[in-house]
Amino acid sequence: MQALLSYDQSPPLGAPLRFFLTAPLFGILAGLLLLWSGPEALAARWTPAALALTHLITAGFMLQVMLGALMQILPVLLGANMANPMRVASVVHAEITLGALFLVAAFLSFSPWLFKLAALFSGLGVACFVGSAALALHGIASTNPTTQGLKLALLGLSVTLVLGMLLAVSLGWSLNLPLMLLADIHLGWGFVAWGVVLLAAVGYVVVPMFQLTPAYPGWFARYFSFSALAVLVLWTIAEFNQWVFVSAMLGTALVALVVLFAGVTLSIQRRSKRPRFDATQHLWQFAMLSALAACAVWLAARTFPLFDGWTGWPVLCGVLLLFGGFMSVIVGMLYKIVPFLVWLHLQNLGQGRVMAPNMKKIIAEREMNRQMLAHFASCALLLLAVWWPLWFVYPAGLALLVASGGLLRNLLSALSVHREHRLKIESLICADDLPLT
């Protein structure tokens, strides 16, 4: 797959970067929410603060980075060039940002008109992105696991959006819909069909390329995405029809597939050719271990009635999955993608006459490690806060604030390097009266 990368088709740097720079702001808001709401944010799955916190990470942090990454990945990996990528990025970015903010405000206030605005802006933003991506992907054959996985992930995003809009519309117009059922299915599609399938599809390329590991096993790459989507569809049907036993078995199968993905990823990471792990590898490893822990919590709740009776287990599972799992792996991805994009654009700008700075100098390794440790501390404190909220929720909020602020600072430092070297390149090239491309 690496041989098929088309770097010359990379969109303007501003297209994906605006998403990446916005994501840490949602992490900062999540830290502030914990400090403001206190123990309520982790008291139970359905408290207003818990719902707001969840969507600051899913509809805010995660969605920003995932769509920004796809802006870059679709043309470079698949040759799927979006028409007017900067215009699409501007519109989608503005709409999903407003949608996420309105949604969080709606959960905190339960104001019907805020739910309506959240559904409108989130729906328009994601629909615009999926429509543009679908047009770009038209005619591109699914000849490899990454192409197949990305197409299925976009389908997963579409279904997740529809279910989320149904929930928001129901709350906005007081419709008599089965909210609990829709919420569970929305969660399943969001985490598995959108989150895990997308992560796997991208991981087939970026894990071997950036972490110097062997490729994912062929059998796994060929069948994982289709298997996950097929089991998810069957589980959804079972949930809607209230086939309790069948739903439980299919739910266990979904969890087993996530365990398989995490296990395979950890296995190939152990065979990395790097003499020592960098921040990205540590974050990926932590994410996979957190995912395994979340799966263990889910299975324990389904196996032991006493554990299932504890109202805190869904919150514990959510902290492991969202903060320990998805947030960790996304931060790890950003520490490779952003320096690489800055290097690539400066290299192209230099036209072979002015070399771009080394990728390791775009974001200092020491700063990445510091931010990584702050992130790990925030995850540990969040886990402790599930058990002892009065003692640990405020330190957890402060740690999340520090970690997200550190991520924003590191990304801004990469942007600063880009601006500094761009000015240098422009002055050198213009002095030679050569055209600047």
Automatic annotation (TrEMBL):
<feature type="transmembrane region" description="Helical">
    <location>
        <begin position="117"/>
        <end position="140"/>
    </location>
</feature>
<keyword id="KW-0812">Transmembrane</keyword>
<keyword id="KW-1133">Transmembrane helix</keyword>
<feature type="transmembrane region" description="Helical">
    <location>
        <begin position="187"/>
        <end position="207"/>
    </location>
</feature>
<feature type="transmembrane region" description="Helical">
    <location>
        <begin position="219"/>
        <end position="237"/>
    </location>
</feature>
<feature type="transmembrane region" description="Helical">
    <location>
        <begin position="56"/>
        <end position="78"/>
    </location>
</feature>
<feature type="transmembrane region" description="Helical">
    <location>
        <begin position="90"/>
        <end position="111"/>
    </location>
</feature>
<feature type="transmembrane region" description="Helical">
    <location>
        <begin position="152"/>
        <end position="175"/>
    </location>
</feature>
<protein>
    <submittedName>
        <fullName>Uncharacterized protein</fullName>
    </submittedName>
</protein>
<feature type="transmembrane region" description="Helical">
    <location>
        <begin position="17"/>
        <end position="36"/>
    </location>
</feature>
<feature type="transmembrane region" description="Helical">
    <location>
        <begin position="243"/>
        <end position="262"/>
    </location>
</feature>
<keyword id="KW-0472">Membrane</keyword>
<feature type="transmembrane region" description="Helical">
    <location>
        <begin position="313"/>
        <end position="335"/>
    </location>
</feature>
<feature type="transmembrane region" description="Helical">
    <location>
        <begin position="283"/>
        <end position="301"/>
    </location>
</feature>
<feature type="transmembrane region" description="Helical">
    <location>
        <begin position="372"/>
        <end position="390"/>
    </location>
</feature>
